[in-house]
């Protein structure tokens, strides 16, 4: 049974009114936003690692500059999203402690290895492509700071996806070995990219409530279907084999049918047993510890400024 305050809150949500940080909100609304926004931020920060692996081995200076710019953008997205989460009354230190302790999730996709340069193409094209499909609706979600952060993020994300597809096009127009690299990267990233959208709607524990609060404007399966429908023609344009033999246009549905996702793999990765989970967390913890001296110096400087102001 909803309280009067919760009923009034839901009426604002239903009227499409943005909720701002200073507005009253049910604790559960605050909690699920902290959960989703902080994990979104963690995804951006950890998401820099797979691509960082190829900066020193980019094939040209131009590709290296583009990859560096993309990785830098992701860092910015992460900091932007931590700031959005802080408006809900949590501290960045606590959020980072949850990530480093393994308590907080980040997108499963970043627990896969980047084995060739073609993976940089597949990641931009498929991972950022999926992220865009997931993030565009979030620009219209009910929580003001989150929706506004998404508008800026989506603008930069489209550059990420385009440069990825450009890498794939270059490889597919190259030698047979280069085209084979692109095919291998597509085969390895296709299913994990579809897993980014979350469990099936039937298995999604948070969807119903998030939909009611207009945090989730489209269901996991709807957005996943959008990704498949958008990407199959792009695969065909590249002249690559479809990574899922069950993909078939369904005239009646007006969508592509496709095969069943390996949910065991999905839940294993979420449990921390993906190919790179331990390495990703170790790298993040080391980076944080190595940066302690810098944070201490900043604090010492701020304290001294404070002292000077008093005297
Ligand atoms: N990886 C890790 N965890 C996942 C996941 C995935 N791909 N998909 C779902 N989960 C988790 C959920 O977080 C939830 O666990 P929790 O309750 O402990 O948080 C559980 O699985 C059940 O899933 P639900 O569908 O019930 O949960 P949500 O309603 O939160 O939906 C979501 C999951 C669609 C990922 C949603 O949280 C969301 O839209 N998040 C914001 C967008 C986001 O995080 N995108 C992925 C980041 S990729 C990125 O942005 C980097 C890009 O710039 C390259």
From TrEMBL:
EC number in record: 1.14.13.149
Keywords of this entry: Oxidoreductase
Keyword Oxidoreductase among UniProt keywords: yes
Highest rank taxon of the organism: Bacteria
Pfam family, one: PaaA_PaaC
Alphabetized GO MF terms: phenylacetyl-CoA 1,2-epoxidase activity
Ranges annotated as spanning the membrane: none
Protein name (record): 1,2-phenylacetyl-CoA epoxidase subunit A
């Amino acid at each position: 049974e909803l309280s009067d305050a919760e009923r009034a809150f839901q009426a604002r949500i239903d009227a499409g009114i943005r909720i701002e940080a200073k507005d009253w909100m049910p604790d559960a609304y605050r909690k699920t936003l902290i959960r989703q926004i902080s994990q979104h931020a963690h995804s951006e920060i950890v998401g820099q690692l797979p691509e960082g692996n190829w900066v020193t081995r980019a094939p040209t200076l131009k590709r290296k500059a583009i990859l560096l710019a993309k990785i830098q953008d992701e860092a910015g997205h992460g900091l932007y999203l931590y700031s959005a989460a802080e408006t809900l009354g949590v501290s960045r230190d606590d959020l980072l402690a949850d990530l480093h302790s393994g308590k907080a999730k980040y997108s499963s996709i970043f627990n896969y290895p980047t084995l060739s340069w073609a993976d940089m193409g597949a990641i931009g094209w498929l991972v950022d492509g999926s992220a865009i499909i997931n993030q565009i609706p979030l620009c219209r979600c009910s929580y003001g700071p989150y929706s506004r952060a998404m508008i800026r993020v989506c603008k930069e994300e489209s550059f990420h996806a385009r440069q990825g597809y450009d890498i794939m096009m270059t490889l597919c127009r190259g030698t047979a070995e280069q085209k084979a690299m692109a095919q291998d990267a597509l085969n390895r990233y296709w299913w994990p990219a579809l897993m980014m959208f979350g469990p099936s709607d039937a298995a999604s524990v948070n969807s119903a409530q998030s939909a009611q609060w207009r945090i989730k404007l489209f269901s996991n399966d709807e957005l996943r279907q959008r990704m498949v429908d958008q990407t199959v023609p792009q695969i065909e344009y590249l002249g690559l084999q479809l990574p899922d033999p069950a993909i078939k246009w369904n005239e009646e549905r007006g969508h592509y049918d496709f095969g069943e996702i390996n949910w065991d793999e999905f839940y294993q990765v979420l449990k921390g047993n993906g190919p790179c989970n331990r390495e990703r967390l170790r790298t993040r913890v080391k980076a944080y510890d190595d940066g302690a001296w810098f944070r201490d110096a900043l604090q010492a400087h701020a304290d001294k400024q404070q002292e000077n102001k008093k005297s």
